[in-house]
Write a structure and sequence with these properties.
The complex is a heterodimer of chains A (136) and B (332). Chain A is 35% helix and 22% strand. Chain A has 136 residues and is of the alpha/beta class. A five-stranded mixed sheet of chain A has the order 1-2-3-4-5, with helices on both faces. Chain B is of the alpha/beta class and 332 residues long. The mean pLDDT of chain B is 84. Classes of the chains: A alpha/beta (136), B alpha/beta (332).
């Protein structure tokens, strides 16, 4: 696996902090991360992609994806968002998709996600988390 | 008149008009933005500032003094050097060995606005720590349209006549973005400052003429930007060609500029140009294209009458290869 950039690592940390707010206390051990220093990998790919952070327990699914500056609008990233949103839409329970981006990318990420939401309806939540350099 | 002194860092205020901070403050409630957030926006604790931090640590201080203005109430406000001041504050707070309580500063007293702007422009529009293009344009527009700084003064402060058209385009692009693009965005979450480059490209006379000639307005253009009809901002330059071609225009309005450019590329290729290409090369290329075809293209071929010609061409080539060539070779 390629080493992730400093910015990417920061974004993943931000995702983890956000997930901790959403899950029951004591369940943090169930958060799975796709990082080089982590042993726990997501059990399966979603539409051929592996999210950066993944949590699925009982009736709660959370998918977290970190996108650095310049990555947000790439075709590969769009395919990832689409796959994750489909996964959320098909989940029986509460599903949340979190996308962490540098704050300058907030509008770009928001616009893509809103456009995809029209194509992939469902009872799930999407949230853009803004990152300010050095905030974690 | 200026003096060179060592000032206590507690006496100095960060410059909140720095566009890197001002952009953020325009989105969020300034009352809720703490000084810590401002420090983060300046990025002083990050890898991008690492070499500057190390240099200051190594030398036990800064080499080039920061520039401050002593204001009528006796406080000092940074004109140039926010980042260096913040690094001092970080070092002091985190106990880095050394004296970080005071910083070398050139102090001006009650500097007028024009001089302050001149120092800022030199540092951040043409200097080593440039702002992002939208922030630059916002600041230039402020100086020109709010402070009414004469354009020739602005141009000379930004590096002379070679920059004149660039500066005018940036101000015009900023105003187009605010006038036509912002009103069609639902909120700040939709208003994407990274689209600024597209509005700079819009200032080209060729592009503007093409829009007018085909009955489109700057609002239409902004809607294309918002709806991602223009896939990459450089494609704005191709708008005249796209609008000129009936088919490319149709595909552009239905899909996006990437698809429209494919139509233009196809129109530029004539059978005359292809006739000398060996058939095995054509076959390999066709095979590669088929293998890389997107799902949406497949859907169009299946359902879209506009794609009927394309579909028929594929059917015809399959039929010809099978019935004329392969059946002869394979003896079927």
């Amino acid at each position: 696996m390629m080493p992730e950039s400093y910015q990417h690592q920061e974004l993943v940390q931000l995702l983890k902090r956000e997930i901790l707010k959403l899950i029951p206390s004591g369940c943090q051990i169930l958060i799975q991360q796709d990082t080089p220093d982590s042993l726990s990998l997501p059990p399966r790919t979603i539409g051929g992609f592996r999210p950066d952070v993944y949590y699925c327990f009982e009736n709660l699914l959370i998918i977290g994806e970190a996108k650095t500056e310049g990555e947000v609008e790439k075709q590969h990233s769009r395919a990832q968002y689409e796959a994750y949103m489909k996964e959320c839409a098909n989940f029986q329970g509460k599903a949340v998709l979190l996308i962490a981006v540098p704050w300058i990318e907030r509008a770009a990420a928001n616009n893509i996600i809103q456009r995809l939401r029209k194509r992939i309806p469902g009872n799930y939540t999407t949230k853009i988390i803004e990152w300010i350099e050095g905030a974690v | 008149m200026s003096v060179f002194v060592e000032l206590s860092i507690d006496q100095i205020k960060i410059d909140k008009e720095n566009p890197r901070i001002a952009n953020y403050l325009s989105i969020y409630d300034p009352e809720k933005v703490t000084s810590d957030t401002i420090a983060l926006l300046l990025g002083t604790k990050t890898t991008s500032c690492e070499s500057l931090r190390e240099s200051i640590r190594e030398h036990g201080g800064i080499i080039h003094p920061i520039i401050v203005n002593k204001e009528p109430d006796g406080t000092y406000r940074v004109i140039e050097g926010n980042t260096r001041l913040q690094i001092y504050k970080d070092f002091r707070d985190s106990g880095v060995p050394g004296n970080w309580d005071s910083i070398k500063a050139i102090v001006y007293e009650n500097l007028d606005a024009e001089r302050i702007h001149a120092i800022r422009l030199q540092a951040h529009l043409v200097g080593p720590r440039e702002w992002d293009p939208y922030s630059k344009a916002k600041y230039l527009n402020y100086l020109y349209n709010v402070e009414h700084m004469p354009i020739n003064v602005l141009i000379s402060l930004c590096g002379g006549s070679s920059k004149a058209s660039e500066i005018k385009n940036m101000i015009a692009a900023y105003n187009d973005m605010e006038t036509y693009y912002r009103p069609i965005c639902d909120d700040d979450m939709q208003f994407d400052i990274k689209k600024f480059h597209g509005f700079v490209e819009l200032q080209s006379k060729t592009v503007l003429d093409a829009l007018k000639m085909h009955g489109f307005t700057k609002t239409d253009f902004s809607i294309w930007i918002r709806d991602e009809k223009i896939s990459v901002m450089q494609d704005v330059r191709r708008i005249p060609d796209i609008l000129k071609s009936k088919k490319a225009k149709e595909i552009f309005l239905k899909e996006n500029s990437t698809e429209a450019k494919k139509v233009l590329a196809a129109e530029e290729i004539t059978t005359e140009k292809l006739k000398d290409v060996p058939y095995e090369m054509l076959a390999k290329e066709l095979s590669k294209r088929i293998m890389n075809m997107t799902i949406s293209e497949l859907h169009h071929l299946r359902d879209d009458p506009v794609y009927e010609d394309k579909l028929n061409s594929l059917r015809n080539v399959c039929h010809d290869i099978q019935t004329i060539i392969l059946s002869e070779i394979d003896g079927e």
